[in-house]
């Protein structure tokens, strides 16, 4: 193996974001990809993770492994969301440090910011207000991951970076009818309604909340871009390395507008009805992505394009969703 090839571990390589990062890195000739299935490595098992790192001679880590879900899943399984995410983060980040891995990228979430944060949300909004109640346990776990990276950087001089993506969607998303995020849940609902020739599809909430959506392949490209930034470029003007950076489009739309675009892409011609008795969640979530733009990255895929790509993938893989 050429000496200049990096050994890169992608944790969570079968998930939506992890698989997109694998697609990005697999096109490179300077990378040896290291992946491990859950049946081979339980990331919640500290000893197993330590042994894995000790044996693999890893140079870089993309920490994309996480337990994720939408409002319903976060409301139903709060203990699992905080526990499993905390344990995986602690195990991987500490094992990386113990085995002298200098470069790590932790993937967080825009839900780390306060429910009523000023819009668009800047990196400095972290820990300035109360979190959205429906996903607070998950958000607390992600904040802890950011602070783990920050702490290892401060104490040990590591270069552990964090990216905070906006709402993601795309290939390999979770299309479970109850436990998925809004785009995959609605895509499946509209598709099945079209097959049944239903007259309407019901969407949770009023349709008024504003959301920003990023296609997952754009997120993967941004992750690689941030990982490979020169260290000095990634520092703030106070010369303290910022532990996280926002990733998004900087453009948002209402849930109603997204649902109408979804209906168009799927080909559902019935009515879209909003159930205002269901929770809306945060009124608006828009990321300030100016810092990432200054560092040379901007999204490429708009919402309708991304939904079209995702629906094509959904159609090709729908048998696995039924199973």
From TrEMBL:
Belongs to the NAD(P)-dependent epimerase/dehydratase family. Fucose synthase subfamily. Pathway: Nucleotide-sugar biosynthesis; GDP-L-fucose biosynthesis via de novo pathway; GDP-L-fucose from GDP-alpha-D-mannose: step 2/2. Catalyzes the two-step NADP-dependent conversion of GDP-4-dehydro-6-deoxy-D-mannose to GDP-fucose, involving an epimerase and a reductase reaction. Its EC number is 1.1.1.271. InterPro entries: Epimerase_deHydtase, GDP_fucose/colitose_synth, NAD(P)-bd_dom_sf. This is GDP-L-fucose synthase. GO terms for biological process: 'de novo' GDP-L-fucose biosynthetic process. Substrate binds at residues 189, 204, 211, 280. Pfam families: Epimerase.
